[in-house]
Write a structure and sequence with these properties.
Elements lengths: L1 E4 L12 E3 L2 H8 L5 E3 L2 H17 L3 H14 L1 E6 L6 E6 L1 H10 L10 E2 L4 E3 L1 E10 L2 E11 L1
Parallel strand pairs: 4-9
Antiparallel strand pairs: 1-2, 1-3, 5-7, 6-8, 8-9
InterPro entries: Ribosomal_bL9, Ribosomal_bL9/RNase_H1_N, Ribosomal_bL9_bac/chp, Ribosomal_bL9_C, Ribosomal_bL9_C_sf, Ribosomal_bL9_N, Ribosomal_bL9_N_sf
Keywords: Ribonucleoprotein, Ribosomal protein, RNA-binding, rRNA-binding
Organism: Kribbella orskensis
């Protein structure tokens, strides 16, 4: 089965790649989860827009990753959340929340999949999270979780 990846699939490819997979894997796993779409001539046009969006977000090389790392490590990220009187959160902080907080703090656009949280953040206060910018470059972001 020939498919076009809509999202990155580990061990298979990046968004916009045309891949050949077994019928069952494509029909039962990739397509229902929105990870891939069926390949057609019309879908080839969609590949171009997916690749352009990926190139706009992608970090270009190790030098660019180092620049973004310096930018992230100097940035103080503040995240407003709902919390109880004792400082415990209603739920926990997700990588998507952190990516949005980095963007709203004036930082660069960061993929939520690149953010690694050691243990779940369920309390207010100061925390550190890791952002994998490049296979060789990772940044540590200081995150302050504040109750609203």
């Amino acid at each position: 089965m020939k498919l076009i990846l809509a999202q990155e699939v580990e061990g298979l490819g990046a968004p916009g790649d045309i891949v050949e997979v077994k019928d069952g894997y494509g029909r039962n796993y990739l397509v229902p989860r929105g990870l891939a779409i069926g390949w057609t001539r019309g879908a080839e046009k969609q590949i171009q827009s997916i690749k352009r969006a990926r190139d706009a977000r992608a970090i270009q090389g190790k030098e660019h990753a180092s620049e973004v790392k310096n930018q992230l490590e100097q940035l103080g990220v503040k995240l407003d959340v709902k919390a109880g009187e004792t400082g415990r959160l209603f739920g926990s902080v997700t990588p998507a929340d952190i990516a949005g907080a980095i963007k709203s703090s004036g930082g660069p656009l960061v993929e939520k999949r690149a953010i690694s949280i050691g243990s779940p953040i369920k309390t207010t206060g100061k925390h550190q999270v890791s952002v994998q910018l490049h296979p060789d470059v990772a940044a540590t972001v200081r995150l302050e979780v504040v109750a609203v």
